[in-house]
Design brief:
The chain contains six helices and nine strands. It is α/β, with parallel strands linked by helices and 246 residues long. It has a single domain, classed as Zn-dependent exopeptidases (Aminopeptidase, 3-Layer(aba) Sandwich), CATH 3.40.630.40. A seven-stranded mixed sheet has the order 1-3-2-6-9-7-8, sandwiched between helices. A two-stranded antiparallel ribbon has the order 4-5. Helix 4 links the parallel strand 7 and strand 8. It starts with 5 loop residues before the first strand and ends with a helix.
Length: 246
């Protein structure tokens, strides 16, 4: 089977939602250092390589929301599709205590080669799917580690990231905060306003409603938990959208 840098699920679905998962897999294609980034296998299973559980949640949400889902098919350590092309963290050389050996000496030519092979095709796929929908709402699914090696524990179960367009995220946060068992973060565990990132490219620059949802990865480590979170989130997302007048 020919390698593709992205996967599209439910491609024929025509709801208003478009679900994307920028950090869906930890795949290192063979054309990148023979398929090996030069780090331990255990590190490739950590949050530094991909967003654990996010793809399963995105797929389940796509089914419930009757929405197309676009997932990356390469590790964020190969090149990060949720960064602008001029972002200094586009190609990570050190991440949460791990040196990424295959990236240490990557020059501009190598970065551009990876952009052409992975980053740009993924974004073309997202752009084409968004253009095919009527007034799409971009829903980006991510996950975060409960604690970085040198950081404090993170109490949030879920975070909603946003930039200046909060038409959808403010009512979504209000709705999530009605859930008494949830600790909900607003632009936590980090901010969601990186110029050139996926939401900027496919939502903000087009005036589209959007949200980036971060789930703590220990809560979505299993397929069962991924499904449970999708089932829980879908009606909240749908009710939030119904309540808007835009």
């Amino acid at each position: 089977m020919t390698y593709q840098p992205y996967e599209i699920i439910n491609s024929a679905a025509k709801s208003q939602w478009l679900v994307i998962c920028d950090h869906a897999t930890n795949v290192v294609p063979d054309i990148v250092n023979g398929g090996d980034l030069g780090i331990a296998a255990a590190d490739m299973q950590r949050h530094i390589a991909y967003d654990i559980g996010a793809k399963g949640v995105a797929q389940a949400l796509g089914t419930i929301l009757q929405a197309p889902v676009v997932c990356s098919n390469f590790s964020r350590l190969v090149i990060d599709p949720n960064r602008g092309e001029d972002d200094p963290t586009l190609l990570m050389k050190l991440y949460d205590g791990t040196i990424i050996e295959a990236n240490r000496f990557a020059d501009d030519a190598e970065i551009n080669r990876r952009l052409d092979a992975f980053h740009r095709p993924y974004h073309r796929a997202v752009a084409e799917m968004a253009a095919a929908l009527d007034h799409p709402v971009i829903l980006s699914i991510h996950s975060f580690t409960p604690q970085l090696k040198a950081g404090p524990t993170r109490p949030w179960q879920i975070g909603v990231l946003s930039a200046e367009d909060r038409r959808f995220t403010d009512p979504l946060l209000a709705r999530l905060r009605c859930e008494s068992d949830l600790c909900v973060g607003d632009n936590q565990p980090y901010r969601g306003d990186l110029p050139g990132d996926a939401i900027d490219r496919h939502a903000l620059q087009h005036g589209r409603l959007n949200a980036l949802i971060e789930l703590r990865n220990d809560l979505i480590a299993t397929q069962e938990d991924q499904q449970k979170w999708a089932v829980r989130l879908a009606p909240i997302l749908q009710d939030t959208l119904k309540g808007l007048s835009v």
